[in-house]
Design goal:
The protein is α/β, with parallel strands linked by helices and about 290 residues long. About 30% of the residues lie in helices and about 20% in strands. The strands form 2 sheets. A 7-stranded mixed sheet has the order 1-2-3-4-5-6-7. Helix 8 packs across helix 10 and helix 9 packs across helix 10. The longest helix is centred in the last third of the chain and has 21 residues.
């Protein structure tokens, strides 16, 4: 685990999101869980070496942020925004989250096969939220406050976890640091608003959903990525391009960095879904923009 400040630990070198935990005077708060089984087990052991886990907070419903919850059963209360809870491991046209988690095992975590559940067993109790809320929520654990800020955009139930005592905010996938941004079914305007909300926080460090830890200066980089994607597709629509032409021609594979660790094979998938979903929204095929 990479140590960001004295009491904050985050992992930025494995397939999936940046799972983290914060140590307080009265236990540990975990923020997101690793997708890979052996990494989830190892993270739980590391977190519990600093004290009992009081809460496990998920920042969004995408599989790389929540699948590891299965291996944290009995370790504190799981906290989900309602928008996340309603979508927890739900199969959507763009992705079957369980199948996505399973396909990574042979190449990325072969030792995890022994502890990987079958689908029915997993869905009986994936360890989703026991504390479910709307809006914002503040948790107090020992000497630390954790402000769970609803920052929709990337997903409807997106959270940023602000820990003022550590001068850090965990943004989930509201920030993709130095790697490709997954737009998919996002609402870009809400996402831009979320970036501005994060900008108001008095923090030294941002722990992004993917990629290295950054400062608030990176908010402008993420903003530009979102605006370039939306503008490029809007121009395509204005030119009268079809959806198929837009997906074929609008591509930022060489512009915004690599795909995050262990997911290089997803580059074409990201480009296709980003362009296609934006096209659908801008042309009114689906709501939101």
């Amino acid at each position: 685990m990479e140590q960001v400040t004295a009491n904050v630990f985050t992992e930025t070198t494995l397939r999936g999101c940046n799972p983290s935990f914060v140590v307080t005077s009265d236990g540990v708060v975990v923020i997101d869980t690793p997708q890979l089984p052996t990494r989830a087990v190892a993270m739980r052991e590391e977190a519990e070496s600093h004290g009992p886990i009081r809460y496990l907070v998920n920042t969004e419903h995408h599989v790389d942020h929540i699948f590891g919850n299965y291996y944290f059963k009995g370790a504190g209360a799981v906290v989900n925004h309602q928008g996340l809870y309603d979508r927890f491991m739900v199969v959507y046209p763009e992705l079957d989250p369980f199948a996505y988690a399973k396909e990574a095992i042979p190449t990325d975590d072969p030792e995890g096969e022994a502890i990987f559940p079958d689908r029915d067993e997993y869905y009986r109790d994936p360890n989703k939220g026991t504390i479910v809320f709307t809006g914002d929520l503040t948790l107090r654990v020992g000497d630390r406050a954790f402000h769970l800020l609803h920052t929709p955009g990337h997903t409807p139930g997106q959270l940023a976890v602000h820990v003022p005592g550590e001068r850090v905010v965990f943004t989930g996938d509201t920030i993709f640091s130095g790697c490709q941004t997954w737009l998919m079914t996002s609402d870009v305007q809400q996402w831009l608003d979320a970036l501005e909300r994060i900008r108001t926080l008095d923090v030294d460090w941002i722990v992004p959903g993917h990629g290295p830890v950054v400062t608030k200066a990176y908010l402008d980089v993420q903003r530009s990525v979102l605006m370039e994607w939306k503008t490029a597709v809007a121009v395509a629509v204005a030119k009268g391009w079809t959806r198929e032409e837009t997906v074929a021609r609008v591509n930022f594979a060489d512009r915004f960095g690599p795909v995050d660790v262990g997911q290089g094979y997803m580059m074409d998938y990201i480009q296709t879904w980003n362009a296609g979903s934006l096209y659908d929204k801008l042309t009114g095929a689906i709501p939101g923009s």
